[in-house]
Every structure is written in structure tokens, then in C-alpha cells.
Design a protein that fits this description.
The protein is of the alpha+beta class and 636 residues long. It is built from twelve helices and 29 strands. Helix 2 crosses helix 3, helix 2 packs parallel to helix 4 and helix 3 packs antiparallel against helix 4.
Length: 636
């Protein structure tokens, strides 16, 4: 018999805390139901055998890790309440749903696969295929309909039918499991006939199984092939080990690495290149190649030798980090020395090889705790080559500024009317420490570094967790200008979404202004776009900002989209907005080249802004039209 889901009713108050023992008890008691839930949410394209094993694996991995204090979990309301609340069951159910949704994601070359996307390590069955008992025509038809749904919609249908959750409860679980749009999933699930009783059929019971052998002939052929391959490997190994004119252990490779001339030169601190002190004044460009070597330890050959050796062969104790898309291999030849000196409690060396900035740091006292950081900087010039992070400690950051920087100050982007705080710099151009953007918690301030160069131009950059700070600009994407704090007052906190993403610059573009219905207050639509050093991975974010709101509301976002960028300087987004009088409106805005807007409900306006009455739960899609008739979809 199937265990019944623990019924619960919504109640105000803090979320219950679940420990390992409580979750384990719920897992053991309701194991058949949880495995059935995972089996139904998993994509049928996996095949019944792998689907069964994956369902068991996801359920068995749903316990909290370690023996740490419990975790809080929200419990959605279920129909037929009145029974005791079971936060342990709610926790493991959420983990099962999250794992099943991850397992349905397609594998791509752009990111590492998640654990649920790979074949399960345990349980494993060799030489047999397992599958549930066959049901009738109704079960087969339902399985085919569910197979056509997205993973989130399939989860919404199963949570409704198997777990008896209402829409609010389904939405809560899908959101916690990482679903981007639970409302779309619920709407998609509505298209399938509600035959929930079939979900309890033996067709969908991965705990009551049939077993059949795998392809016996193919298995025999594979065993023969493996034996032949092993024998061939042994014969080839014996032949290679014989003396004579055959291949040596390194084949056609050059002599060992340390004897290669270019590699040997790259490890010699005496071969490091150094720019002249005033080279930047005479150069046609201002980039890292004209930075002079600075710092009190530029003549410390032992330190430089250690830095180069760790760069070429970092040991297991070295903490190595690299921005996305940055190679972390050895130097191709002699690098350029930018800085070597003592900063706080560390000795720091900054090197440049034409493509990357490399930071080596070791503690002043002791020999453990060395760090090696890589950042891609190809094509950096002017503002992008004006500062490097030389050290971070206790939430504070220090910069090494370019030789053409005349003064530096700190500006809190959330307080545009505030005064800039002047930063002292030592003779080498290293700033005093100041508070960097908060890594977590509430966003109550966001500090940026403001620099004035020898020509009087003012630039602003901000720390996003990498060696190179991100340049801040504002205005139309095809002709951005240097940003002022007022350009980022309501958008600065959104910069946290691109932290450690290899960001080169971020532009804030106020592309439309709108008068709000009923109140007549002014609002603006802003698109922020982060460009990366590697080219791919750009992120665009459309925000709706009101005069009385401290930050903007995210209306739409996209990754690797040309919208809101120099190639396609146009954008369209919409939100549902509640007026002070309690009425709901669909608000939308496009860039100035959008000549008309149309909502899926039939509302159409000439111009680039729209405000139409709507219901709170109504779903509408916007489409913009350019002067030549080209359709512009919303940012996504």
C-alpha cells in the first residue's frame, strides 16, 4: 500500500526546523510515495530502467548533509488538512522534486553537469533491466501526455494529484526547487485532464518491479572486445618498453618542461620584463603594458622566483581561482612585472602576460596559505586598465591604481547626494582599505571606486569579486558614457547577480519613462547589461523603478541575448503593478524605437509605454512593433 502524505494546514509563524533524524524518519516511513513522486516527475525519455534507478537514487540522497543543526523548511497547505504537520516529509519531498527537475535539464558544454543529470552511482543493477508492472490504456495515455510537458509542469501535475496540494502549495514547492516561472508550469499542467487517481496505478510504482536480462548477445560481444583491447594494450606496452629505435616514454614530445627554452625563461625572475616609469606618457595606448613595476619587493628575486614557480606548477596547498573563460596554465614566456610588495599581512606579486593578470600572494609569516588568482584582460585599455585589486581582507578591498590616475575616492551608489570620500594612496599607487560591496545579507550600501586621470576624466569601477573591477557606464548601449552615482542609485544592488562572472563592464540605460495610472507619479524603466571579458555570458536585466521605491523591481532578464546591447539597442519588458487604490495594471515599456505595444488581452497603444487594467492573476504577454513592422518580443 502507498503511504499517505502527511496532511498539513497553512499557519503563520516561523518555518519549522528539520534535523537529520527527523528527515530520515520521514524518508523511511514514506519511501514508496517519495520514489513514486520522483519517478513521475522524471522525464520518460530516460527510459524505464534508468528512470527507476534515478528515482530511488534521488530519494536516497534527499537527506540533509552532515550532522549540522537543522534547516528551516516551509510547509505548503494540503487539501484535507487536520492531521499533524510533518516538516521532515516536506523537506525530503522538496529535495526529491528539486533533484527530479535537475535530472530533466539538458546537458550542455557551457556548464558542468549537475549530479542528478548523471547516471546514479547507487543503486546499481548489472545485467538486468528493471521496470514497473504495466498498466492499462488509460495509464499509457496519461504517461504520454505527461511526457510532452516540461519538467516543472509535470511536477505541478503530480504535486496536485499525488500530494493533493493546492495551487499556492505547488507554487511554493516549485519556487523553492528553483523553477523560474511556477505560474507557467501550473498553466501548462492545466492542459492535461485531471485524472489523478491513475497516479496511484502500479504502472507508476518503481518499488514493485519486473526484471528482464539485458541484450545477452551484445553483452558477449562487449566482453570479447574488452578482452582483445586489454591484450593489445599489454602487447603495445611491452613493445614500447623494448630498447632500440622505437618510441620513448614521452613519444615525440620535446625535452622535459624545465629544459624547454621558453618555459625555462618564464621561470627566471631575471627575464621578467619591466616598463619604464614614464612609458605611459609616450605610449599611443594606456593599458597594462605601460604600467611600471612598483612595490618595495620588486628586487626580491626569491619572492619572484616562488611566484613564477607556483604559477607554472601550483601545488595542492595553493588556492587557485580564475574568472570564467580564463586559462590558468603556465606562462608562455617571460611575463611583465607590475607589482611586488607587502600589503596588509601578505606579500603580493602582480604579473601580466598580455592576456591575463596573475596575482600571487603568500603570508608574511609561515609558508602555508599561498594563493594564485587569474583574470582575463585581453584588449583592456584606458578605464578598464586603471585599477587592479591587490588585496581583500575582512570585507575591505585595496586597489593598485594605474600611473595615470591622479586621485581616487569612494562613492556609495545608493546615496547619490552624499559626498565622495577621498582615498589616500601610497607612493606606489596602492589605496587605503575601504569597505567593498556586501557579499550577502541586505543591500544597504554599494561602494564604487571613483578615479580622476591626468586629463581630468572621471571613471567609476566597482568590485565584483575578481582581480579586475567592473567599469560602470550609463546611457544608450551604442554610445555609453561614464556613469554618475545617480545613474546607479536604484540598480546598484542588482550588480550582486553578476558577481564572479568575469564581468568587464556594466551599463545602465534608462530606456523609457512612464506616468503611473491613478497617482500620476513618474516611473522609469532601466536595462542593465553586463559584458564579459570572454564575450559570451552577457546578462541583461530590465527593471521597473518608481520614485518612492529604494530599488527597482526586476521585470525581465536574459543571458547571451543581443537585446539591450550595442548590436541590438532595443528592449521591451512589462510588469503587473498594484496602485495605492488596490487596482491592478499591466504596465509595459519599450525603447524609443518601439512605435506600438500590444498585450495578449487585446490592449494596444501607439507609443512605447502601456498601462492597462488587469486582474491580479491574469497572465499577459507584450509585443512591440518597430516603425518598419518588425516585432519585438519581451526580454527573456
Amino acid at each position: 500500500m502507498q503511504s499517505q502524505p502527511p496532511q498539513s494546514a497553512s499557519a503563520p509563524g516561523p518555518a519549522p526546523v528539520v534535523d537529520v533524524e527527523q528527515a530520515e524518519a520521514a524518508l523511511v516511513e514514506h519511501y514508496p510515495r517519495l520514489v513514486r513522486l520522483a519517478y513521475l516527475v522524471l522525464p520518460p525519455s530516460l527510459g524505464r530502467n534508468r528512470r527507476v534507478l534515478t528515482a530511488h537514487a534521488l530519494t536516497q540522497r534527499s537527506l540533509p548533509r552532515g550532522r549540522k543543526p537543522g534547516v528551516a523548511v516551509a510547509i505548503p497547505a494540503q487539501q484535507g488538512g487536520g492531521h499533524r504537520r510533518d516538516p521532515g516529509y516536506a523537506y525530503v519531498r522538496l529535495q526529491v522534486v528539486r533533484g527530479a527537475l535537475d535530472a530533466g535539464l539538458p546537458l550542455t558544454w557551457r556548464s558542468w553537469p549537475r549530479r542528478a543529470q548523471l547516471p546514479p552511482l547507487l543503486p546499481q543493477v548489472r545485467g538486468l533491466r528493471l521496470f514497473p508492472r504495466s498498466g492499462g490504456a488509460d495509464e499509457l495515455a496519461l504517461d504520454q501526455r505527461l511526457a510532452k510537458l516540461s519538467g516543472a509542469a509535470r511536477a505541478a501535475y503530480v504535486l496536485r494529484g499525488l500530494e493533493a496540494l493546492d495551487e499556492a502549495g505547488v507554487r511554493m514547492i516549485l519556487t523553492a526547487a528553483g523553477c523560474d516561472d511556477p505560474d507557467d508550469a501550473l498553466a501548462e499542467a492545466d492542459a492535461v485532464e485531471a485524472r489523478y487517481a491513475l497516479l496511484a496505478s502500479p504502472e507508476f510504482d518503481p518499488c514493485s518491479l519486473h526484471a528482464r536480462p539485458t541484450d545477452l548477445m551484445r553483452r558477449r560481444q562487449h566482453l570479447k572486445a574488452a578482452g582483445v583491447a586489454a591484450l593489445a594494450t599489454l602487447v603495445c606496452g611491452a613493445l614500447l618498453g623494448l630498447p632500440g629505435d622505437g618510441w620513448g616514454p614521452d613519444g615525440a614530445a620535446a625535452p622535459p618542461y624545465a629544459q624547454n627554452p621558453a618555459a625555462q625563461a618564464a621561470l627566471d625572475p631575471g627575464k621578467l620584463t619591466v616598463a619604464a616609469t614614464g612609458a605611459w606618457r609616450r605610449s599611443a595606448r594606456t593599458d597594462f603594458s605601460v604600467w611600471p613595476a612598483r612595490g618595495s619587493l620588486v628586487d626580491d628575486k626569491a619572492l619572484l622566483r616562488r611566484a613564477l614557480a607556483v604559477w607554472a606548477r601550483p601545488g595542492e596547498s595553493v588556492q587557485v581561482s580564475a574568472t570564467p573563460g580564463t586559462p590558468s596554465g603556465a606562462p608562455p614566456g617571460p611575463a611583465q612585472l607590475l607589482y611586488a610588495g607587502e600589503v596588509d599581512a601578505a606579500r603580493v606579486v602582480l604579473l601580466y602576460d598580455g592576456l591575463r593578470i596573475v596575482r600571487y600572494a603568500e603570508p608574511k609569516e609561515g609558508t602555508s596559505g599561498a594563493a594564485l588568482d587569474f583574470a582575463r584582460v585581453d584588449g583592456a585599455s584606458g578605464p578598464e586598465a586603471s585599477a587592479l585589486v591587490v588585496n581583500r581582507a575582512d570585507g575591505n578591498v585595496r586597489y593598485l591604481t594605474a600611473p595615470w590616475v591622479r586621485s581616487a575616492a569612494v562613492r556609495d551608489l545608493l546615496k547619490p547626494a552624499g559626498q565622495a570620500l577621498a582615498l589616500r594612496r601610497d607612493a606606489d599607487g596602492v589605496t587605503e582599505p575601504f569597505a567593498g560591496p556586501a557579499q550577502s545579507g541586505r543591500c544597504t550600501s554599494w561602494n564604487a571606486l571613483r578615479m580622476r586621470d591626468h586629463s581630468g576624466a572621471v571613471r567609476m569601477v566597482t568590485d565584483l569579486g575578481e582581480l579586475t573591477p567592473a567599469r560602470l557606464t550609463a546611457g544608450r548601449p551604442e554610445a555609453p558614457r561614464e556613469a554618475a552615482p545617480a545613474d546607479w542609485t536604484k540598480s546598484a544592488c542588482s550588480l550582486a547577480s553578476v558577481r564572479s562572472h568575469g564581468v568587464r563592464s556594466v551599463n545602465s540605460w534608462a530606456y523609457a519613462r512612464q506616468t503611473l495610472p491613478e497617482t500620476g507619479a513618474a516611473a522609469q524603466w532601466v536595462c542593465t547589461r553586463a559584458e564579459t571579458w570572454r564575450g559570451a555570458g552577457s546578462r541583461s536585466l530590465a527593471q521597473f523603478q518608481t520614485a518612492d521605491g529604494p530599488t527597482g523591481a526586476v521585470a525581465a532578464k536574459a543571458e547571451d541575448s543581443p537585446a539591450c546591447g550595442p548590436r541590438e539597442p532595443r528592449v521591451l519588458a512589462g510588469v503587473r503593478w498594484k496602485s495605492p487604490g488596490g487596482n491592478w495594471y499591466l504596465l509595459g515599456a519599450g525603447s524609443k524605437d518601439v512605435t506600438s505595444l500590444t498585450a495578449s488581452g487585446g490592449d494596444q497603444v501607439q507609443g512605447n509605454v502601456l498601462a492597462a487594467g488587469t486582474e491580479r492573476t491574469a497572465r499577459a504577454r507584450l509585443t512591440g512593433t518597430l516603425a518598419d513592422g518588425t516585432k519585438v518580443p519581451t526580454l527573456r
